[in-house]
Amino acid sequence: MTQYFLGADLGGTKTHVMISDDSGRALGFGESGPGNHESVGYKGFRANLNQAAQQALTSAGVQSGQIAGGGFGIGGYDWPIEKKSMLNVISTLRLGGPIGLVNDAELGILTGSPRGWGIAVVSGTGCNCRGWDVTRQHRGRVTGSGLEFGEAAGASELMFMVSRAIAYDWTGRGPKTALSMAFVEKYGFRGVEDLLQHVICHRIEIDASDAPLVFKVAAARDPVAVELIRWAGRELGEMAITVIRQLNFQAIEFDLVQIGGMWDGSPLLTEEMKRKVLEIAPKANFIRSKEPPVMGAVLLSMEAAGLAPDEKVRENLIRTIPFLRGAVVEED
Prior knowledge:
By secondary structure, the protein is of the alpha/beta class. It has helices at residues 37-60, 83-90, 104-112, 155-171, 178-187, 192-200, 211-219, 223-247, 267-280, 294-304, 311-325, and strands at 4-10, 15-21, 26-32, 67-74, 99-103, 118-123, 127-132, 139-141, 254-259, 284-288. It has a domain at 4-104 and 291-325: 2-Layer Sandwich (Nucleotidyltransferase, domain 5), CATH 3.30.420.40. The protein is 45% helix and 18% strand.
């Protein structure tokens, strides 16, 4: 009898839910708003998860009680004390089988690495880095808590540095940068002072959604913008190195999977990270995952149910996901 599996990827900007059968054939998909409780609370987490799950179940023609296993990668699930609250929300789906629960960064390992182990470096709205060894008994991680804890760089951290660069330009503390006028023009202000007063007085917010403008200015060879992209790459490399050392991966071959939309902004980001990482882990195999992380959640759901999805299952998911979703846009 055919078994059905539900995978969910809940991030800072969206929730994706996918249903597949035990062969890896994608059958249903749902999408809704953010699933990170740190931004939308547990009420928003529950509402968006249920909305996306119902879409996926309906499109697959499957009832929740028929689900043999669920896999959930949740942004903001960083500490054991959060697990009970996460499970309480997931229980509202009334799934028929056991579930697996990980931080959403760990979905990158399952999605991008055919080995099923290694390290994932996330640079999307925020940033994170997690990894596990071949046994999955030894795990490595950073805090996942951003600049407050010295970790960068996703788009949010990049925009913090951009705001500082614009302020330094205006006060004369730092170099002139084309970023200043780029943001003045985008927001329609008279000049940099007008822009800054609106930002500082909380009339507007320069946020993660503005990151493409930084890449555009960097592509035009503005030195400050270029250095900010290089800074971000170095910071991401430092996070990867931290987890590499925790797992003792320095001398072995392993997959390092890059997850998140920031990686598509400029090749400088990857270049800087590679330069840092390869200095201490020369056998690192860099993979820019092309599939959506929700694929990893589906694989996790199968594992939760006691299956060991093989390469054929992976191939079926990769082949059928684009037909199910149309043009798949992965990240957050």
